[in-house]
Give the backbone structure.
Amino acid sequence: MRKMSKLALISVAATAFSMLPLAGTSYAAGCSGAGCDNKGPKATACDSSATTERSINNNGRVAELRWSTECVAGWVRIKNNASPSVYDSTATIEKYNGDGKLLKALSVRTPGEGGTDWSNMLGGGTYYYRVCVRFDSDLYPLLCSSKF
């Protein structure tokens, strides 16, 4: 009986040890390209390799086109730097084909003063993307970045 207990203990220890990450191990992203469409950048770990490729400031609402080369996907991150933040707005990422046709768009409401939020992703390396900020009222015009 004692021999079996030692064997079980060794088996449990070996299993636990095999689950530990090795130094320098990187985890693969949870999606790639169009497979990332409408998935969250944090949930898929795509945010860990992201850079800001485009940015637009519409009256204190800063929309950034965040791009993950590892996931081949992008999203809009919106920061509300307006003070006071009186008017509601929305940030959008748009995906275009090579002919300039809008294929998909995802939006996120601008958070309160000083807040940051982001949309889900749109992916694929053969497309073009841009981000826009639109106000609910006609007080400020729609502003969009150049395409990436």
